[in-house]
């Protein structure tokens, strides 16, 4: 069976983008693949984190996976730092990744911003760790949001570089799976920026744990233009904020983007925003409630993570032993 690997960073409030771009797709794929879903806590450290918060957020992401419908009996759910192979393989792969490949990564440029000289080596090397995460398990498919496409292409290049350097066909080249009507959910405050956990404005995103009141307020305040809703796809493409809200509606209502545009064409934003808020609250309300129930039982969550890390390690360790052997690292 083909294998899926994917993950979310425990870096703050999980939002609608994480849900629609990634987690919801995992739920639909889980029974057709051998699935490994990680909480990538080592990635979180590429930017400063409060240690107490990091632990809490790791449990929160775990609860979100389960509350969204991922079956922890069928899928492996664990946190990255509990399997040593991730950090080990990242170092080995960094020794065969040219700097030129990393210099092209746009996410580093965005996250490092103008303080490039002060950015950490970890932030720069993030895509190598991500390649290690995936190929450590010889994953064949990686369901992610659009923003991770470039990193996925790099993971394929790195896997290929390893195979070529050692004349083996050891690592499969992982295929990105980017699908659904909301592969890139944008900020509610700025149609040019993606919805992000690290955005300083709480009004920029709908959190998976927001209640109906908070969702309604954020959607009411979402930036739009003074015109009625777009008449067709061409007009929607030229109006990013409207297009984003219609894309979110389409994804939540299981419609195509065209169907959502046709449904509200020419209408005022106020009625549409009320419908969007109600639908968001209906979908997220159930998940948020279940997350809160699970988070009240940290022992249960830790048990899932512990068992998941044992299952993950049982796959990763033999692969690492082979990698050490292929690369000529003696294990006396
Ligand atoms: N806005 C988005 N639209 C669609 N998919 C998204 N994803 C993230 N943002 C959007 C997808 O969610 C998964 C987990 O992402 P991540 O936690 O690894 O980090 P990220 O992509 O950097 O997401 P954030 O929320 O913006 O976090 P911060 O602010 O910490 O960087 C991935 O599959 C991603 O594609």
Trace the largest sheet across and list its strands. Answer: 1-2-3
Helix content range of the residues, please?
A: 55-70%
Major sheet summary line: 3 strands, parallel
Order of helices and strands: EHEHHEHHHHEHEHHHHHH
Low-confidence stretches: none
Average predicted local confidence, pLDDT = 96
Q: What name goes with the CATH superfamily of the largest domain?
A: HUPs
The portion of residues forming beta strands comes to 5-15%
Number of domains: 2
Terminus-to-terminus distance: 34 Å
What is the radius of gyration computed over CA atoms, rounded to a whole number of angstroms? 21 Å
| Oligomerization | single chain
Kindly report the CATH topology of the largest domain. Answer: Rossmann fold
